[in-house]
Specification:
The protein is α+β, with helices and mostly antiparallel strands and about 180 residues long. Helix content is about 30%, strand content about 25%.
């Protein structure tokens, strides 16, 4: 398994991976929604606000994760949001996602990110260090349909102190449908 951080020559392939992964698990409409999200992330997000990591096995794209900047108006810490995450439907439950998440979290920590936040299944993301948080600990950019899925982890070796102030996400994620 090879992990890569360069994505610019593979955007179409990555978009197709997200479409296939979400269509297989949640239906065609969700596959199209997530493919559109990834397309918008690539088109609208400045490089300094984005980290993309992919997994390849014998040259075949098997997984991809995307981190984008999450700003807290009154906090000096660097925060990135993990969303979305996809593993090829035929390669799920083989440890690819967990390995890719560990790799990505390690890399963004080395790049100076203090806190990683995500919105998803606590049982899955807790395997790589995420813990449930409340809106008082870190305000979400939009109202959450499933507040139990709001998760975070410090990457700087410190305890997670509450993130101060309201938050804002990148333009592509600034839509209630994703929250």
């Amino acid at each position: 398994m090879e992990f890569l951080s360069e994505y610019r020559g593979s955007t179409r392939e990555i978009i197709s991976l997200f479409r296939a992964a979400f269509a297989a698990s949640e239906g065609d409409a969700e596959g199209e929604l997530r493919a559109g999200l990834v397309r918008d992330i690539f088109a609208k997000t400045p490089d300094q606000d984005l980290f993309v990591y992919s997994a390849r096995d014998s040259g075949t794209l098997t997984g991809c994760i995307i981190f984008s900047r999450l700003r807290y108006e009154q906090d000096s810490r660097t925060v990135f949001l993990l969303s979305p995450v996809a593993v090829s439907p035929g390669r799920q439950r083989q440890g690819i996602g967990q390995a890719l998440l560990k790799h990505g979290l390690s890399r963004i920590g080395k790049e100076g990110v203090d806190v990683a936040v995500t919105y998803g299944d606590p049982a899955y993301y807790s395997k790589v260090g995420f813990r449930q948080i409340t809106g008082a600990q870190a305000a979400a950019p939009m109202p959450l349909r499933f507040p139990d899925g709001w998760l975070a982890q410090p990457l700087n070796g410190e305890e997670l102190a509450p993130l101060r102030g309201p938050s804002s996400c990148i333009e592509a994620l600034n839509d209630p449908v994703y929250w």
